[in-house]
Design a protein that fits this description.
Belongs to the OLFML3 family. The longest helix has 95 residues. The protein starts with a helix and ends with a strand. It has 3 helices and 20 strands. Helices cover 30% and strands 37% of the residues. Bound molecules: 2-acetamido-2-deoxy-beta-D-glucopyranose (2 copies).
Length: 389
């Protein structure tokens, strides 16, 4: 009996333990289930947060894409602009550029030029407040193609007149007058022009139009300077230019024995004589009386020169360069002795023909009127003060 009682006790104990174990396990399972459902909840929350984040990211990426696209178009347009600026720079360089190897070349010529002893260094007697010199060519414009390969064109180099004059050819007696630059550019050939017939033919391209007068040369053994009144079509004055044995002043423009020029100070003659055959001489003339005020022998060679002009008492001579299609100011002579050859500006002119047949400075407009193989071209100059060099 005792044994049975023990057994029952043991069984009871065992089943009580079993129940406790089951209870324990159930609690654990519930806890685990709770935790799982918590995880589940959290995971769903995370998942939805992640989805939201992803959506945000996507829309931001889209925005970024759009911004990238705008940036790319902006860059493209900047690129095109850079291209254009580069092309313009290229163009300017070809017009006015300095290629080192050529410069060395040109410098050598210039040194030779300066070695030549200047004969006359007498300062120009007149006091003048004009002190500009060229710094560069700012712009170039081809205005028209009219007439033959050689000639001269110019506006009247005085304030009031807007008239344009054409001296076509190197041996003719009829000046064509246009009422304005507009008339000149829109005229079909010479159709809008008026003829001014001179009593004698001009020779070369050395003429100027100044204060309603044409000054031209008429050459035989001597150089005759003729002053012609445009208003009443009559010769006002004429004078023999007082030099012996003149020779063509530029070897590349042989038709022009003597060249005339107008600057801020008035009328100048650019010429050469047998006595000083290798160099160009310069004279200041009185535009009223045609008297010579002063003369200078410059150090600028005639050889390879094609044209010249005067600005503020400084003679600029333009030479053919070794580069085809280009000429260059390569010698300067300042009557006031303020600009030397070392300070000569690096000024290039493009050209089509063998040489510019004329280059005329207009002091009112600071423009050069050029005739190049029948093209009438304007060069706009930028200036600086001689003292700033
Ligand atoms: C200009 O001059 C050239 C050469 O002298 C001549 O052949 C041509 O016919 C002239 N043109 C005009 C429009 O006068
Ligand atoms: C033309 O005008 C100038 C002054 O403007 C005068 O000296 C000259 O005598 C005139 N000539 C003729 C032919 O009228």
């Amino acid at each position: 009996m005792r044994g049975l009682a023990v057994l029952v006790t043991l069984v009871c104990l065992a089943s009580a333990q079993h129940q406790a174990l089951i209870d324990y396990l159930e609690r654990r399972l519930l806890a685990i289930e709770d935790r799982i459902s918590l995880w589940h909840e959290q995971t769903t929350r995370y998942a939805s947060e992640l989805r939201e984040l992803k959506q945000q990211m996507v829309s931001q990426l889209e925005n970024l894409d759009k911004e990238k696209e705008t940036l790319r178009t902006n860059l493209d347009s900047v690129g095109t602009r850079v291209d254009r600026v580069e092309r313009e720079l290229d163009y300017l360089e070809t017009q006015n550029g300095a290629q080192p190897c050529v410069d060395v070349d040109d410098r050598l010529i210039e040194q030779q030029v300066t070695l030549v002893k200047e004969k006359q260094k007498a300062k120009y007697a007149k006091i003048s407040d004009c002190s500009d010199m060229i710094s560069s060519i700012k712009a170039m414009k081809i205005m028209k193609r009219l007439g033959g390969a050689k000639g001269m064109w110019s506006k009247d180099t005085s304030k009031s007149s807007g008239k344009v004059y054409i001296f076509n050819g190197t041996n003719d007696d009829t000046i064509r007058e246009f009422a304005s630059v507009q008339d000149f550019t829109r005229s079909l050939g010479m159709s809008l022009s008026t003829d001014l017939k001179l009593p004698s033919a001009w020779r070369g391209t050395g003429h100027v139009v100044y204060n309603n007068h044409a000054y031209y040369t008429n050459q035989a053994e001597e150089i005759m300077v003729v002053k012609y009144d445009m208003k009443n079509s009559s010769v006002t004055d004429s004078a023999v230019f007082p030099v012996q044995d003149p020779v063509p002043v530029y070897t590349l423009t042989p038709e022009t024995l003597m060249d005339l020029a107008v600057d801020e100070e008035g009328l100048w003659a650019i010429y050469a004589t047998k006595q000083n055959e290798r160099h160009i001489s310069l004279a200041k003339m009185d535009s009223n009386s045609l008297d010579i005020e002063q003369m200078w022998d410059t150090n600028c060679p005639r050889e390879n020169a094609e044209a010249a002009f005067v600005i503020c008492g400084t003679l600029y001579v333009v030479y053919n360069t070794k580069q085809p299609g280009r000429s260059r100011v390569q010698c300067v002579y300042d009557v006031n002795d303020m600009v030397s050859n070392e300070e000569a500006p690096l000024v290039y002119f493009p050209k089509r023909y063998g040489a510019h047949s004329s280059l005329k400075y207009n002091p009112q407009e600071q423009l050069l009127y050029a005739w190049d193989d029948g093209y009438q071209i304007l060069y706009k100059l930028s200036m600086k003060k001689k003292l700033d060099v």
